[in-house]
Amino acid sequence: MKKNIALIIILIIFLFSCNKNENMGIEYSLYEYESYISTLISNRDTLEFTSNFALNIDDKFISTLNEMTLIYELTPVNIIESIKNRGAVYQRIFSNNDDSLCNYLPKDGGYYDVSVTCKKYKDIIVAQIEYPSFNKISENSIEFVAIYLDNKWNLITINFLNI
After folding, report:
1. Which of 8, 1, 162, 158 is closest to 87 using CA atoms?
2. Is 118 in a helix, a strand, or coil?
3. pTM here?
4. Which of 137, 120, 140, 118 is nearest to 129 (CA)?
5. 93's torsion region: left (phi>0), alpha (psi -120 to 50) or beta?
6. Is residue 76 within 8 Å of 144, Cβ to Cβ?
7. How far is CA 14 from CA 9, 28, 42, 50, 67, in A?
């Protein structure tokens, strides 16, 4: 009887440690992804940046995202078109304007003042990567929303948040 209880306790500890290690791996990969996205932005690599968007999100994911507390207005297609046409999204992130994000990120990626939040809901893992206002000209912070699909992070939208 005592051997069974000890075995059950060991199995429970093992299961919790495996789950914790999986979550730690996802969080670590999120910080690596933030550094990767920062590098693309600071180097103005719009082609590779736009290839990071998840374009095939089915209705199940959309309805689950709507249940979460996320802003989800621009679709990946809208964002990619704005970047290709050098529209408002391009101007805010990649342009030579003094208030564009690319001018404030280090060339080797990562930003010291970034806020990274990871949320899990109904087996969907979503991350919000927020770069705060970086100068007096800038009135908004920028938030990239990513989803963890097929063992990698994919962007789903960009939010411009008023401070």
Report:
1. 158
2. strand
3. 0.73
4. 118
5. alpha
6. no
7. 9, 21, 42, 40, 32
Contacts of 96 (CB under 8 A, 6+ apart): 103
b/e map of 41-77 (b: 16 or more CB within 10 Å)?
bbbbebeebbebbbeebeeebeebbeeeebeeebebe
For residue range 68-115, list pLDDT tens digits in order.
766 667 788 888 988 999 888 888 888 888 778 888 887 777 667 788
Query: What are the pLDDT digits (tens) for 105-124?
Result: 877 776 677 888 888 877 78
Residue 99: Cβ-neighbour burial (10 angstroms; 0-12, 13-18, 19+): middle
Run of H or E including 119: strand 115-121
Q: Rounded distance, CA 163 to CA 104, Å?
A: 18
**Any idea what the Cα angle at residue 113 is, between residues 83 and 35, rounded to 5°?**
55
**Residue spans of alpha helices (H) in the chain:** 2-42, 46-50, 59-67, 76-84, 88-93
